[in-house]
Amino acid sequence: MRMPSHAAGTARAVAAKSKVTDDAGGTAALPQRGRKWAVWTFKYGILGLGAVIMILPFADMLIGALRTPAERLARPPVYWPAVPQWHNFVRAFTDLPMVAWLTNSVIVTGAITVVQLATSALAGFALAKYRFRGRDLILRFVLVAQIFPFFLFIIPMFFILRYWPFAGGNDWLGQGGTGLLDSYFALILPFAVSWYGVFLMRQFMMTVPDELLDAARIDGASEFGLFWRIALPLVRPGMVTLGLLVWIYHWNEVIWTMTVTRAAPELQTVTVGIQLLRSEFFDERNQSLQQAALAVSVLPVIVLFLCLQRFYVRGLSMGSLKG
Amino acid sequence: MPPLSLIPAKMLTQRTAPYLFLVPVLLFGLVFFALPLAASLYLSFTSWNSLVSPRWIGLANYEHLFTRDPLFLKTLLNTLVFTVGVVGIGVPASLLLAGVFSRSRYQALWRSIYSLPMVTNVVAVGFIWWFVLADPWGVLNRLLALIGIAGPAWLNDPSTAMIAVVMVFVWMHLGQNMLLFSAGLGAIDESLHEAARIDGASETRIFWSITLPLLRPTILFVLITSVITAISYFALILVLTEGGPVNSTNVTALYIYGMAFTDLRLGRASAAAYVLLVVIFLVSLLQLRVLRRGGVEAY
Predict the structure, then answer these.
(1) B186 lies in a domain?
(2) How many angstroms separate the CA of residue B282 from the nearest CA in chain A?
(3) Which end of chain B is more exposed for a tag (fewer CB within 10 A), N or C?
């Protein structure tokens, strides 16, 4: 996958909306008007039907979260709760270790986001704004590395952390202890760099004008100063985009966290927490509480996304049109 | 000034700066990319249960997988069915939605609604759908009963479990692909459509002869990422069915995970992971070959 270097067109492409239909004037002949109505019905029929399918499972979860155990146990179960049991949401915090789960989620996701932003911005700046030996090689590697699926890394990465020298009681050969497995590092370190993030930040850094950097050099700015004081402020929207993508991805991550925290329940995040309730999900008395817990795990990301969605969409399309 | 001011300014010249800026990424690439790949390649030629040292057994793992492990072959077949299902349904559906979405009003509203599944964590997605599908009083079967259809026990019946898993996976990724396609559609110059219309081309003709060829880079990207995700992503199936009933939804990636962390057959699991990687490479190359024809130079 080779990619061209200009990134600027993408954002415009997203902003531009096709301005066809809908304003064709009101004096159309009758058959044409009928046809227009058919198109309109088809268009919003499909969008509306899809929207219902998107929302229905969420609505089902919220309605379920408001039932009493008796309503769930009835045969057939009562679908609409007579009195909405809002305290099920309170119980998700009092009866389950929800606070600890959310705290872990915030710590891990926050740390990964900050570290990835730093490594991606630095590397992206180097790859976009310097000419040096090996640059094209590194760039090509960054693109190819994205194709390798994560399942390939689960087994070796687990044992790399397990045999990490001088950590968790290990000697210099990595023997004798548990390595990094019992610490937050196990959840953060394997995601300190994302190849996609490096690539995305490089695209954003391409938009920083060289003249600006050269002018600052003449004024005596250090190379790191160029990055910190000139490039970084200019790519702030790009940082928000990447930060949001990383936050959502890692808040929702479950396979790796589950694998690592099996022996360390105190590190469990909210997604792993609700996954571990699995066996209890089948007990119908608890289902309302479980559904409330699911809603709690989902809500922070949805709120964040709805506030910042224009950045998210830009990140998505940037990876595709130029990837 | 923060972090790097620890490095003496003399060392950070225009020549050395890019290398220093790349140090974290290169170190990471070594420890968390190259080393894992090399380690699991080595492990794939050994027998290892993590308790005693790995024992070199040559190609025996690969041989076992292909000749003495019918379940492995079944999971490969399941992976194929699953991938064809989610790509065959999901990609055309998201293209259709993108077509109507990019010509509609209230785009912010539609975008928010269609984005909900893709920002929801997979455990929640799995359980939300489990409640919709699982028991006879799940909301889907209640709705089907309204129009007089007795719905199956979606997740407990080997003949419908795969359909259910494909459905949920498509639901989860529909919005993402729709947004990608609508960005691609937005990049097409509208004057091309106008010109064709003036020349008297029908809308169907315009779609096949103008829109679709110009959309090819986006189609290629969505297809390749969808196929890779479908082959390698097993979290949803883990939550929804754990591969059951009777392995009817057991895909290779999930099988590998169980082989490694439940059965502790780490050598064989590494071999299986490499087999799946080769499959992914071959399929991606094939797609590039087929879709590249006709001058998608961007890729």
Answers:
(1) yes
(2) 12
(3) N
Domain that holds residue B35: 3-43
Q: Which of B35, B180, B277 sits opposite A320 (nearest CB)?
A: B180
CA distance A255 to A307: 27
Give the closest of A60, A159, A297 to B121, CB-based. A297
DSSP conformational letter for B47 = E
What chain A holds in terms of domains, given with CATH numbers, is 96-276 (1.10.3720.10)
CATH at residue B278: 1.10.3720.10
Q: List, as ranges, residues 145-174 from B with C-beta within 8 Å of A.
A: 171, 174
Collapsing DSSP to helix, strand or coil, A66 comes out as coil
pLDDT in tens, A143-183: 888 888 899 999 999 999 988 888 777 777 777 778 888 88
Share of chain A above pLDDT 90, in %: 46
The torsion angles phi and psi of B55, rounded to 5 degrees, stand at -115, 125
How far does B183 lie from chain A, in Å, by closest CA?
Answer: 5
Suggest the residue from B6, B89, B120, B281 to mutate for an interface test with chain A (most A CBs closer than 10 A). B120
Query: Nearest to residue B183, comparing CAs of B194, B193, B175, B173?
Result: B175
Chain A: residue whose CA lies nearest to B273: A152
Based on the fold, state whether residues B112 and B8 are members of the same structural domain: no
Query: Is B183 within 8 Å of A316 when comparing Cβ atoms?
Result: yes
**Rounded (5°) CA angle A323-B296-A138:** 35
